[in-house]
Write a structure and sequence with these properties.
The strands form three sheets. Strands 1, 2, 3, 4, 5 and 6 form a six-stranded antiparallel beta sheet that branches. Strands 7, 9, 10, 12, 13 and 14 form a six-stranded mixed beta sheet that branches. The chain has a two-stranded antiparallel ribbon with strand order 8-11. About 20% of the residues lie in helices and about 30% in strands. The longest helix has 13 residues. Helix 1 crosses helix 6 and helix 5 packs antiparallel against helix 6. The protein folds into two domains: about 190 residues, Sandwich (Immunoglobulin-like); about 70 residues, no CATH class. By secondary structure, the protein is an alpha+beta fold.
């Protein structure tokens, strides 16, 4: 299990077991559209032709499907679509399936269309995990800088009781991690042998905090974290919690806000879906934890210990 998978497992364990509110009324029109959450075989054997187009596009995780889109499964296998109403549609191949007519689920589609690209990048990140070196390392690797992908130079999170999960690249164990506001220590852990830490049930009050990670050779990285009284105002079209798609779209919106400053808040938004073992939420959380790919790259203050 790599470090990002371990972090995600920690988040799931720490999450409050709850579910996204589901309307007791009939499923909304357009429930026969959604997101591709699984497919097999892994090679590009399944394609989608979006309505109004003649171009065949390989199906990927996170691909958005809408009314009148045509899915072509050229070989034996399957494509699993998570519908807007939270249910799933399993399509067996070989064969074709056209998405039934229905009302489009509104502006959330604009936010969800970027998912396939994000999840593709997450797969690339996972594939390159070996470049980080083993969890145990020697003095030759001590110069590797410590980097926390989910954090930016100025990250933000809303005040209250929080569970913060972080993972990092670089450095050598044992690690120590501390979160402090001035002289007050909100969380501290030391003797860590893996590049991850989850602070559970932190009572964070508004103010300026500093996260500091130090490795066994004295190399350290510090990040500024601003705790605010309330998070950003969510656009009206993203405020509903009718389906998992609503929650995922809101998380994507938060993750892109202010150059990635709200990524911690974005992962927190996904937690209700973790208890439901939502595949897209899990993969999106992996991406947010492991990728530095945003318009504003992280710029931590680095100090080197004695060599």
């Amino acid at each position: 299990m790599n470090v990002i998978q371990s972090i995600f497992s920690s988040i799931v364990t720490a999450a409050i077991v709850c579910s996204v509110p589901t309307s007791t009324a009939a499923a909304p029109a357009g429930s026969d559209a959604g997101l591709v959450v699984d497919y097999a075989p892994s090679r590009a054997s399944h394609v989608i032709i979006h309505r109004g187009s003649t171009t065949e596009t390989p199906i990927r995780l996170g691909t958005v499907v809408q009314a009148n889109d045509l899915l072509k499964l050229r070989v034996a296998g399957h494509v699993t679509i998570q519908l807007w109403d939270g249910t799933q549609k399993e399509i067996e191949g070989p064969g074709e399936w056209r998405v039934p007519e229905g009302q489009r689920p509104g502006a959330i589609v604009l936010y969800l269309h970027s998912l396939a690209g994000l999840l593709g990048k997450q797969a690339d990140i996972a594939a390159s995990a070996v470049s980080r070196g083993p969890e145990d390392c020697d003095s030759k690797q001590a110069s590797a800088p410590i980097r926390v992908p989910i954090l930016r130079e100025h990250s933000r999170v809303s005040a209250g009781t929080q569970t913060l999960a972080i993972g990092w690249f670089g450095g050598c164990p044992p690690y120590s991690v501390s979160l402090s506001s001035g002289a007050a220590v909100a969380g501290h852990a030391e003797g860590l042998t893996k590049r991850q830490q989850t602070f559970r049930e932190l009572n964070l009050e508004p103010g300026a905090y500093t996260l500091r990670i130090q490795d066994g050779f004295g190399t350290s990285a510090t990040y500024a974290l601003e705790v605010v009284a309330a998070g950003p105002t969510v656009p009206g079209e993203l405020a509903a919690d009718r389906t998992s798609a609503d929650v995922i779209a809101r998380s994507v919106w938060l993750s892109e806000l202010e150059g990635g400053a709200w990524r911690l808040e974005s992962v927190k938004t996904l937690r209700p879906l973790f208890a439901r073992k939502d595949k897209i939420a899990a993969r999106l959380a992996d991406y947010l934890l492991s990728s530095s790919d945003t318009p504003t790259a992280p710029s931590p203050t680095m100090t080197k210990g004695p060599q």
